[in-house]
Amino acid sequence: MRYVLFGGMFDPPHMGHMSIAREAARLLNPDKIIWIPSANPPHRKKALIPARERFLILSEWAKNQPNNEISSFEIGRSAPGYTIDTLSYYKDMDPDAEYFILIGSDQAACFSQWKNWRTIVEKANLCVAGRPGGGELPPEAAARAVYLDNPPLDISSTEIREKILAGQDLKGLVEPEIYSILLDRKILRGLR
Ligand code: ATP
Known about the structure:
- By secondary structure, the protein is an alpha/beta fold.
- It has a single domain (about 1-155), classed as Rossmann fold.
- The chain has helices at about 15-30, 50-60, 85-95, 105-110, 115-125, 140, 155-165, 175-185, and strands at about 1-10, 30-35, 70, 100-105, 125-130, 145.
- It has a six-stranded parallel sheet with strand order 3-2-1-4-5-6, with helices on both faces.
- The structure holds adenosine-5'-triphosphate.
- Adenosine-5'-triphosphate (ATP) binds near residues 16, 104, 129, 131 and 158.
- The site of adenosine-5'-triphosphate has 18 residues, from helix 1, strand 4, helix 4 and helix 7.
């Protein structure tokens, strides 16, 4: 078995996320892409959409996305979700499987600040997607990485949250299906 683990806030999920997940599927042909929305961050940077809601939005979307599974592993935890712990959990479940951790190149640039990053690259491969303004992995991690040839999309959840709060259009930023789910779940209530 081959798994791609894709962690993030997904606050909300956008075209950039979907695009790199599809590219990773094309390149790696995994049995499953496991999306792992992270818990609500403690104080500092507050999520616009609560963790459980973000999990439900992705779950609704994934109903029509074969091989994409949404994990509640991190949202159910009170401690901050570190990738090393999430990876260990999945490795314990299926020790013989091959694991790829999907990240954008902005995360590649700060990868050496991730908890136990050297252990992460001993246990898993990295799959790095290009992102405007991104950077490079540390050399030891780059040796365990594959790179996606994805179209660079200058889209972030930050920009989308600002637009939601200002009641602005999200055209071209979120997939139509995600847009409908956001409407249904009353997250776009303020949209004019
Ligand atoms: P925020 O603006 O709130 O920081 P974000 O847009 O970076 O959010 P996250 O949910 O934090 O979204 O990202 C999850 C993962 O997806 C990260 O590894 C990130 O690098 C990657 N990612 C997000 N947007 C893009 C994009 N446009 N292109 C490539 N990778 C992306």
